[in-house]
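This section describes the prediction task in plain terms. A model, or a person checking by hand, is given the sequence of a single protein chain and must write out its three-dimensional structure as a string of tokens. No templates, partner chains or ligands are provided. The sample shown here is typical of the held-out split.
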Amino acid sequence: MKQTRRKFLQSSGLIGAAVLSGSSFTGCSGTSSVRVNGHLWIYASKFPPDWDSTPVLDQVFSDFKYAGIEGVELMEVNLRHEDAVSHIGALTERYDLPVTGSSYSADMWDPAQHQKILEDVELVVDCLHQLGGKNFGITVGNARRKKTEADLDAQADVLNGVLKICGDYEILPNMHNHTFEVLDDLHDLKGTISRVPDLKLGPDLNWLIRGGVDPVDFIRTYGNKIVYMHIRDQHENGKWTEYVGEGVTDFSAIAKVIKEIDFKGEVAIELASDVPPENAMKENWKKSREYVGRVFEW
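The expected answer:
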């Protein structure tokens, strides 16, 4: 990139003393067990269309701490605020709960957006690095159609740039799927892997199921590339559950194959809701964490 992040921030009016102060908030290091984080989508879903849960981050940290969740996975919008490092860093200290990563979504198949995406990724990744986060889950964007070879080539071009930025900041990128990446015999995902072989995977197991892909087979096939996973549950009718373990997902089979591949990465529980929850949110997180602990022995 020809423009440094500092110059970009200055030119866009986003520079802030807190962001550029060099502050660093490093979470506790993992043990031999897989670290179980939480992704804050259930809170962000209340803030359309930008999904910015920043106003309720205190509740996020409080609920996760109560439930025994070991780290917070943010969304990129949380890290675009000029006071993101100071605000979120204060929460990590108050609750003794680290930021472990962030998800990130953009239409990477569209060449017209590439420069904007790379500038935004550097801004977000820099803030994530200052907060001590490590994982960066990338969603490449839904074209609302089957992507062409040219789309996949363009997607790969910008992904290589994203990987370079992540390497500069010691961040571990992974490809986080929704359904569109795994439809048509994994057309999008396979096209990306073939073009960007160094990109690791961070599958969302529930989106795999909803895309018609057996998560056990997927993990067995791509286990050597998987560094992160999202865990969510659903009822037999396809509606999301309030907490993990309430539904019909065969987590015992998933846990077995994860042991087979000797998984050494991290996971995030991600709750979603089709209807208003009956339980307090912190209780749904606690039930989910306890279930994951029992079944996966984490």
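For orientation: Strands lie at 36-39, 72-75, 99-105, 135-139, 172-175, 200-201, 228-231, 266-270.
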